[in-house]
Design brief:
three-stranded mixed sheet, two-stranded antiparallel ribbon, 11 helices, 27% helix, globular
């Protein structure tokens, strides 16, 4: 019998500083099998980063997904710290945590039936906003939904298909959960129920809603939703574009959208993820995706960090997430997922807002990656075929 994953990694982390101090090759578990992991082979030598000059910002590389919390990777030498890190009270990046400013009013229902391309179905505007009976524009595009996905349980548990969409593709303010391992989904709901999975920005609406849903969802409802969403793959959903400038944006509900008739502004060091067609997205059309604008050079930088560890800066994501980053056992896939969501989860691991299963093992892994690294990692994984 092999050691459990937690036992093996606790032992590894206890010895990692000694290995680094002596320039020794570090070993870590790399073969995952359900919840068991066995030590099989050495990992490359980790170089000393003590003289690195980049500004350190705590972030977490191992799990970038949707709901991304099972990865276990190698601890790295600490880079020099500056006074303000996320745990020292820095504000979370606004581009990753849109907060509805309030004061706005939804358009009134004018009684005109709404339609979307590729569907013969019509819904009223009011029907598209029903938390307990969300519109299913393309019912042939997914299996039959269980009750908890299609209707939820009023008033405490809204339909999963409202936020995550009937086909599980999700939106930047929540998560694409199609194709995630059922065991992973169940664990995340358990973490919500226990109050262990929170947001670094407590004013952001969707994470608050998930805490309430997690607290009230029954085990059989969680199991049904997990089995449903894990039964079909996540599809290409996000177009990624490297650019120096982006459309001016505003917050539409809990996500960013392009200002109609607005100009362009410098992208800076952020990810700007917006609907391809805001009208269809607001009607909750699960066939209308998103575009993510990324700083020029972020894909190349992210590829180096994700696939090689960036010359000792971190560990290859494929060690735990599989060689194609499409998941391994209960570890979720990263490929093609929302970069806004991925970056948000990394940041939540940094601040300790996300403290569920396996998060303690993330602390020494990417503790000193910069915010630029975080952007690059989320950008590159989003660019991959899911």
């Amino acid at each position: 019998m092999g050691k459990t994953l937690m036992m093996v990694h606790r032992e590894w982390f206890r010895n990692s500083k000694r290995y680094r101090a002596n320039g020794l090759p570090q070993r870590m578990p790399i073969a995952c099998k359900a919840s068991r992991v066995y030590i099989k082979s050495p990992v490359r030598r980790v170089s000393n980063l003590a003289d690195r000059k980049e500004e350190p910002v705590k972030t977490y590389l191992g799990i970038i997904a949707v709901s991304i919390g099972f990865a276990v990777t190698v601890g790295l030498p600490a880079a020099p710290r500056q006074e303000e890190t996320p745990r020292a009270g820095a504000l979370p990046p606004a581009w990753a945590y849109p907060v509805n400013p309030g004061g706005g009013q939804r358009a009134a229902d004018d009684g005109v039936p709404r339609r979307v391309p590729g569907s013969a179905i019509t819904f009223s505007l009011t029907e598209t906003r029903d938390l307990f009976n969300p519109p299913d524009w393309h019912p042939d595009g997914h299996p039959a939904m269980p009750q908890i996905v299609s209707n939820g349980r009023s008033p405490a548990v809204r339909a999963c298909g409202y936020c995550h969409l009937p086909n599980g593709q999700g939106r930047p303010e929540n998560s694409g959960i199609a194709g995630l391992p059922a065991a992973y989904i169940v664990q995340q709901m358990a973490d919500y129920k226990a109050g262990l999975r929170r947001s670094s920005e407590p004013r952001m609406g969707p994470p608050r809603a998930m805490l309430a849903i997690g607290e009230n969802a029954e085990d059989d409802e969680v199991a049904a939703a997990a089995e449903y969403f894990s039964s079909f793959p996540f599809k290409p959903w996000i177009r990624v574009v490297e650019t120096d400038t982006v459309p001016e944006t505003f917050i539409a509900g809990a996500m960013y959208a392009a200002e109609e008739g607005g100009g362009r502004e410098a992208i800076g060091n952020r990810i700007v993820e917006i609907p391809e067609d805001l009208g269809r997205t607001e009607l909750r059309d699960d066939a209308s995706g998103f575009v993510a604008y990324l700083p020029v050079g972020s894909l190349g930088r992210g590829e180096a960090l994700v696939t090689t560890g960036g010359e000792g800066r971190t560990t290859r994501c494929g060690v735990c997430h599989g060689p194609d980053l499409k998941g391994l056992g209960p570890v979720p896939g990263l490929a093609g997922r929302s970069p806004s969501y991925s970056a948000r989860q990394l940041y939540d691991f940094q601040t300790g807002a996300r403290r569920g299963a396996w998060s303690a093992l993330m602390e020494d892994v990417v503790d000193d990656l910069t915010l630029e690294d975080l952007v690059a990692i989320a950008a590159y994984t989003a660019s991959l075929e899911p």
